[in-house]
Amino acid sequence: MSGHNNNAAPIRFIPQTGRKPSAEDTTTRKAIRRHVMLGKNRGRAPQNPRQPAMQGTAVFRAEDFHQPAEEQSLVIPPRVGTDLSFLDFADPVDPPLMNDTLRFCSATNENMFVLARCISFEAPDTMATCMRRLACDALYVNVMVFGTQTYLDQVVRHNNTTELRRSCLRHYGRALGILRERLAEAERRRGVISDITINSVIILGMHALATGQYGSARNHIAGLGRMMSLRERGLQSFGENKTRSLVDLLRCDISIALATGEEPILFPGGSCEETFRLPDFEVSDEPTRRHPSIGNDGLARIWMVLSRFCAVINKAGIDQTTIPERMLLQTMASVMYGLLSLSLPPDSTDKAIRLAMLSFCASTFLYWGQMRMPLGWLQAEQRRCLFRMKDAHEDNLDPRMMLWMLIVYGITFPAATTDEVEEMRKRLREVTEHCGLTCWDEVRGTMSEFLWIDIVCNTPAQELVEAAHARHRS
């Protein structure tokens, strides 16, 4: 026959005659077993012992995500067809971007909250929620695609090709178009905006903040405020299993205020007291806290609340227990909006302590995992205060308080230049020597008397202190 292929592999048989198997029979058995296992494993994900399962505790790695074409290896040809063939997004997305988005969605709360191990989240299954939204909502699909790429560019890849920029801009434009249509429809029908739409706008605000587009970020948050006003209970409509959305919304609003120095949009002038009151923690074994010489009663009250919150979190870390997500929300909102609303004399000790408390809260509540939002105004203001106060005695400030303020600044805003590194190390050496502290253990013991959370502060603070003294000794 003309279609016959003479090169086709013959069908293999093993005769059962009772004789001992030959070497040829052994090879044939291996070939048959391999063929059977290929069929049995079809559709299963390959198991690579060097690659951890994508859980919330896994660290994002560049090789897990789509790389630009010029960076890809051409040694191994790409696989024909992917597991993504079985997924159906609500809007068209290129397979590489789909893969990145799904990997990002599979990250749990631990990737987005510094205190995650001590928090009991109301809705822990973020992957299932994300998948449902990707399957049914085109707006959410597009904001998640360009939001994922923004995160990866800043945390993993640190670059952005022309191809990726074009894809992200296309999804960004598509998202804005869908959003305008929904808002216009809601206004016509006087309807309430859905939770998915609100979550999508939160992502838009986070994207604008991360890329330094503060005007756009403020517009998104202001729009969210108007959307929430259409609901009967306003922000309180984020009920059970929706606390995470409210936390993200407030984090974005507070971050914009700390980045620009302008008033918060949702709670200007400290108007959150009716919604989020300062919590009253019951801590039976709270360690002794050094109460600084604070003149302002409001600042002193917030200091004590934060001190008790630190004790609760540190105890949860030691006992391996958790606190409710609502407690995190209540503390973050009441403390940070309260600090932002305080009016204190310029160049006063109270103002310097307030700025240090804001920086401490930023590293505790606001940072999105490995991505640090730019907080330019807060960084510039605290730096100016710290390096104006060259001598603690001149400002009637406890030198140990000065040390705490320096370390908090170093943790929240790592030095970016060689000059900044040298300046910070010099100040740390001067202040620790003035306090009579000679090693990290002594510094750690002193810092525990102030606002201090072990899982947030210990590792970066130890690196700061030891680097300062190591360079000096050498």
Q: Give me the secondary-structure category.
A: mainly alpha
Mean pLDDT: 78
Count of distinct strands: 2
The fraction of residues assigned to DSSP E strands is under 5%
Task: Output the helix-strand order.
Answer: HHEHHHHHHHEHHHHHHH
Spatial separation of the terminal alpha carbons: 85 Å
Q: So what's the oligomer here?
A: single chain
Largest sheet: 2 strands, parallel
Count of separate DSSP helical elements:
16
Secondary structure: helix percent? 55-70%
Question: How would you portray this structure in words?
Answer:
There is one protein chain. The chain is an all-alpha fold and 474 residues long. Among the domains are: 86-270, no CATH class; 342-473, no CATH class. The chain is 57% helix and 1% strand. The protein is built from 16 helices and two strands. It has a two-stranded parallel ribbon. Helix 7 crosses helix 8 (243-260). It is globular. Residues 48-62 and 67-85 have low confidence and may be disordered.
